[in-house]
Amino acid sequence: MSEPLERIAAALERLAPPPVAPPDFTAASAFVWHTGPDRLEPVSEVAQIDLGLLVGIDRSRDTLLANTEQFAAGHAANNALLWGARGMGKSSLVKAVHAAVLARGHALTLIELARDDLASVPRLLALLRAAAPRRFVLFCDDLSFSADDQHYKSLKAVLDGGIEGRPSNVLLYATSNRRHLMPRDMIENERSTAINPSEAVEEKVSLSDRFGLWLGFHPCGQDEYLAMIAGYCAAWGLEIDPATLRAEAIEWQATRGARSGRVAWQYFTDLAGRRGLAL
User: What is the mean pLDDT of each run of 10 residues along the chain (279 residues)?
Assistant: First the structure.
């Protein structure tokens, strides 16, 4: 080989990313996927809440828990899209279900995947496919797409798997505030400007149809909101007069202009801090 070609070959080798070393999946029960270079970083302690403290989402909780247990036991299971009102426990439910399945003696690894890293999904799937029979749940939080976003095409590699098919030891759980993963005004705009309105948004809207489970989360009522706070107080042993708790909690949500599990937790954090309690 001539000297110029040798220099070019050497330069290309330096530019090419090194092969990903097989991670030690026994190091942790949860990992975060990073790119540049590709790697799975173990999470020593997952930020999670006890499953029993998630109030007002009983049906979604039971459905996702059953689906996850089926998968961890080696049985058939569906990808799941958790969509709906913000602050109502979508992300918390995924992490709590993972912890509950581990507590019941199943081996299951949770891998968090950022939306911006969806293009790297085929490389991640190849890594996880080689780790079978170990089973993995990919978790993509706050998933949504804009009009010119091409990341949704990469997501199909997880949901459909292309010619190889999705690895049987991998599931995808995603959360989104949008049922169809794209804003309604964008859907209407595509329909109004396209030659064939029905085809204009079919590709992107149909992406959500590829999730076998759709679990909806809706704004909570006042009774559910107060029950969430009462559950936190009981779990951390914080004693307070019920009438005082109710008055303070209602005033807190009024100043925020909303009721949700997140607002309930924020009030409880404030209350615990005032009472000298570390969470």
Answer: 68 60 85 91 91 91 97 95 91 96 95 88 89 94 69 68 79 85 53 51 66 91 95 94 96 92 95 93
- Distance CA(107)–CA(104), nearest Å, equals 9
pTM, to two decimals? 0.82
- DSSP for 202-268, written as a single string: HHHHHHHHT-SEEEEE----HHHHHHHHHHHHHHTT----HHHHHHHHHHHHHHHT---HHHHHHHH
Q: Which amino acid is at 107?
A: A
Q: How far is CA 55 from CA 66, 72, 92, 170, in A?
A: 17, 25, 11, 28
The encoded tokens of residue 82 equal 């958790």
d(CA 99, CA 112): 14
Q: Are 83 and 176 in contact (CB under 8 A)?
A: yes
